[in-house]
Structures are given as C-alpha cells and as structure tokens.
Description:
Blueprint (H helix, E strand, L loop, with lengths): L1 H33 L14 E5 L2 E4 H7 L1 H46 L3 H8 L9 H10 L1 H4 L3 H32 L17 E3 L6 E7 L10 H11 L3 E7 L8 H13 L7
Parallel strand pairs: 4-5
Antiparallel strand pairs: 1-2, 3-5
Amino acid sequence: MNSHLSIRQQKSWALRGLAVAAMLGCVFFLSACTAESGASAVEGSSSDVLAKIGSETITRGQITKEAEAGLQQAKMQKLQCESNYERSVHEVMESTLQKVVRDRLIDDEAKAQGKSREELIQAEVDGKIEPITDESIARFYEENQAQIRQPLENVAPQIRVHLARQGRDNAYNAFIESLEAKRGVEYNLGPYRIEVADSGEAMGPASAPVTIVEFSDFQCPYCSRVVPTLKQVEEKYGDKVRVVFRHFPLSFHKEAQKAAEASLCAADQGKFWEM
Length: 275
C-alpha cells in the first residue's frame, strides 16, 4: 500500500512541477511580449525627419509606408507571442481543473464503496484491461506497417508496451466518464479563443455576418491550397461572408517578403486579389 502511495505522490508532484514550469513559461512569454524598451520607432508624427541626405529629408511617414509589410509581420509576431502566453494559461487551467475533478470523483467513489483509491483503480481500471495477445500485436502491425517500416519481430515488444498503455488509458477514461455521468459533472471552462483583427485587404461587405481572416504567405505551397475552398465559400454564400487577407511572410521563404511588398503596390492600384 505504501509503495502505491509513494508512486501516486510522485505523480502528483510531477504534475505540480509541470504546472509550475508551464506557468513560469507563461510569465516569460508575457515578459517577452510586453517588455518596455523605449519609444516605438513608428511612434511620432509622420512628418518627423528620420534622416537627411544633403538637403533632402526622409520622414517617418515615408519609412512607415515603405516598411508596411515588415511592420505587419512584426505585429503578427507580437500577436503570436501573446497568443502563446494566453494559450499556455488556458491549458494549465484546463488540465488542473480536469485533475481536481477526477481526483474528487475517484475519492468520493472509493469512499462510497469502502475502498482505497488504489483498490478502486485496480478493480475498475486495471482489472478490466483486455490482455495483449500476439494476434492483437500482429493486427496493429499490419494496420501501421507503412509507418513502422521494420520487421514485426524487431518492434513487437514496443507494440506490446504501446497497446498495454493504450488499453489502460482507455479503461481509465471509460471509468472517469462513467463517474462523470453518474455525478452529473459539468465543465464550464470554455475552449481557448483569441480575438483576431480583421484589418487588411478584404473581399466582401463589412456588414457580412461571417468574417474569415486568412494569414498567408505568397510563397507557401500549403497556403495556396485554401484558395479553391475560399472560392467555393464565395460562390455558395456570396455577401454573407467577408474574407480578409493578413500578411504573414515566413522567414525561410526567401521571396515571401518581396511578394508581400509587391502585393501592397497591387493593392494601391486596386488589383490585390488578382495576385
């Protein structure tokens, strides 16, 4: 019994350690995203002179316009940083809530049955796991052979461990679901959501009830795959949908930044969506 308690305590402390580490990561994210480092280079009047070449002046407004694509990418990086922090906070809260609820359900059920937690888990989880047979190992291998790419005899032990772990997880989850149904558990912590600004080149009326914001890179082969879908949406829903394009040129796509800049010139001529 003591050895079981020791293992349980170790798992509990490990989970707490992970939660603390995640929260510390969140703090670092927030610090990186919100650290004050002096006045922003884009702050100030557009007529401010930032450089001179002889008698010729270069103003903040000129540079801001020239750097529009790069500035938009920088804003995206800031948003992504803030989003990572908020997502981490939500994940920590969600996982902690789930753990607290599950622990309470198990403790209450163990008390109701006059058992310890370990005895309850042994009876309702470990005692209901289907044994791993050679046939089940062979079946798993056949279904996943394309990904495994090794002879069965080389991977059979790993498959057995995987199936055993999967079987216990399934049995545990089924037990928890039965307790949740029995006790009428309700989770009111909603899914993680983030507000996205719909500023950018748009197609469709601003009054449309649905707005799709697309973050894209002109050189990205995967981004282009969404184009047929967007066309289908436009044809099917018409003025009920507005599509907004947001630049997100990736650094490892060498032509993406220049393509984004070129698209701004096209936008000035009213030809953005022809690109």
